[in-house]
Specification:
six-stranded parallel β-sheet; DNA-binding; Rossmann fold; homodimer; 3 domains; four-stranded parallel β-sheet; elongated
DNA sequence: ATGAAAGCGCTAACAG
DNA sequence: CTGTTAGCGCTTTCAT
């Protein structure tokens, strides 16, 4: 049984007027007489008339829909970004279509295609970890469809972007570890390819340098998920006696490392301090609570959407590329020691 | 600068053929000669032609898009449901539009409207906590648009639904607490209005009955979020000496309760055992790890989408209402004691 | 083997 | 103040 929703011409027929009269009456066009307007509106309410957004978009060549391409909504950082985007979008009458790439390049390509097929007015994207080829984004760019990158951006394309200052965040939290007495800090980082991971590694190295500590390459592991921590369990434990701190690129990795260390008799933070990145709500729920960096996902989402809205309202004037950098804030909790009084 | 994507008539013009020929060639209609077909296809690839999904939907009266209305994607249970839905949907060529109600009734109404405006072919919904009036869903039902409820359902409307056996889950885990020695179990539950919460409360009560333990109404608190636990902190601590177990309706509530008890010197599970519901990943990250019930969100999502697909492919035959009940599985971890050997 | 025309639901320029 | 018409992009009879 096909559902049939009432259309303007259904109303027109029922009331013995033309479709254009109905259309005008419904949007309070001044030409329509009070009487017919009321009659039409009343009838529309009665039959629960709802405009067909598809027809509208086709006609107006504007869908009032924006597409989001994001790795995985299960991560709090990403879902809070989405909330930020949505809140701004909704307040301006925009809908969002969310597509998850699941960190898969092929799926990301398909997402972009599907979104374009649906004629979204603009795109908000965070690239997948596995994306090295950016031609699908380049073709969006060439089609003149406004696009804003957030968090994991594509530097090869000249678009607006909203990012975290990963370098300074990492430098800040590594300095905190050093300041509280750590000298041999293990860094659990991402694959070298990921830009964000590189920035965090550089920030870590910079903090060592700032404090005249040597960079020991054995003290960095390519390990950025709980699963990966479990796979590196033996290696990490074999190093545990030689380290006094751990800085992980994200909270779930930090927490998993914390667990295997605790299970093996290491006291946190007395023996080993632990720091994460992102301030996932779980950071407050673990024992001991995790020192980390707050990343302001919600505000980043809002900002990304605002940038996109400006592009959308921009008719012809060229806007220069804007880059918004968010400074992460240190959340000192109990997995690191107190700062010693002078 | 308005983006202009290539249309069929652009191709037709460029190649000196009619739009219908292009349309047919692109979908391998047998009438079209090999030569023109190749020519058209090659050109389409060259200009990166992509069909306009809006026009297609309008024409075919089918959008191949389904709408999801869900409280909040930040919760792991909900985002895993979405993943389940998406994986089935994508494999069948459907797109999804996700709308968050943020547990707000008004927003939920707007979500449903927006989805209908976009002419989704069907709806997958989990109602918000604050929804008491179901007329927006009733009107969907009357419009004959297929709809499947999951997790938090609307019993007043006769539709397919996918649910957790909340009663038996609660009974199971409460029995586990009793079996491991608990006699005075505090239940942190939802507001009486929420059906799911009621079922869990009933399951808790049934387990007490099964074991000839009295139901003490003071031992149930309306408290189902971490924030609410903090608000009830004093009350909970004032009861702590008189209880030996806690069963919370969800994991984050259980964990927060666990923290305030631990902070105040209670040992978990030696003094007080704790159990949650849902098996959020965080259950494995806290100390001690949390005993809880696995809820299979991913599979519930898959199942809900499958039910919807059957409705969508159903042309006229009446299908009877189907209800799929998932049995939650006990995940015994370290926040409850071991089952004593006989 | 190809084209012309109508129509999905809606709007807007143009008539009257 | 209201109706007619054309067209957004596409498909699909019906002609030829």
């Amino acid at each position: 049984m096909k559902p049939h929703l009432t259309s303007i011409s259904d109303i027109a027929k029922a009331l013995g007027v033309s479709a254009s009269t109905v259309s005008r009456a419904l949007k309070d066009h001044p030409d329509i007489s009070e009487a017919t307007r009321e009659k039409i509106k009343a009838f529309a309410v009665k039959v629960n008339y709802r405009p067909n957004a598809l027809a509208l978009s086709l006609k107006k060549q504007v869908s009032h829909t924006i597409g989001i391409v994001i790795p995985e909504i299960v991560h709090h950082f990403f879902s809070s970004i989405i909330s930020g985007i949505e809140d701004i979008a909704y307040s301006k009458g925009y809908r969002v279509m969310i597509c998850q790439s699941n960190e898969d390049f092929r799926r990301e390509e398909m997402n972009v295609e599907a979104l374009l097929d649906h004629r979204v007015d603009g795109l908000l994207v965070c690239t997948s970890k596995s994306t090295e080829d950016f031609s699908h984004f380049l073709s969006v760019y060439r089609s003149q469809i406004p696009m804003v990158f957030f968090d994991r951006v594509c530097k090869e394309i000249d678009t607006d972007r909203v990012i975290t200052d990963d370098f300074n965040g990492a430098r800040l939290i590594t300095s905190h570890l050093i300041e509280t007495g750590c000298r041999k800090i293990l860094h659990l980082g991402t694959q070298p390819r990921l830009h964000i991971g590189q920035e965090r590694l550089q920030g870590y190295m910079q903090a060592l340098k700032d404090n005249n500590l040597p960079f020991v390459s054995e003290l960095t592991l390519n390990c950025d998920t709980p699963q990966s921590v479990m796979e590196h369990k033996d290696i990490i434990l074999s190093m545990a006696d030689k380290i006094d701190g751990v800085f992980a690129v994200n909270d779930s990795t930090a927490i998993t490392a914390m667990h295997i260390l605790r299970e093996n008799g290491y006291r946190i933070p007395e023996d080993i301090s632990i720091a994460g990145f992102g301030d996932d709500p779980v950071a407050n729920l673990v024992f001991p609570t995790l020192t980390t960096l707050e990343q302001q996902g919600y505000h980043m989402g809002q900002e990304a959407m605002k940038l996109l809205l400006e592009r959308l309202s921009q008719t012809d004037t060229e806007l220069t590329t804007r880059v918004k950098v968010f400074q992460p804030e240190l959340k000192k909790r109990n997995s690191t020691k107190s700062i010693p009084a002078k």
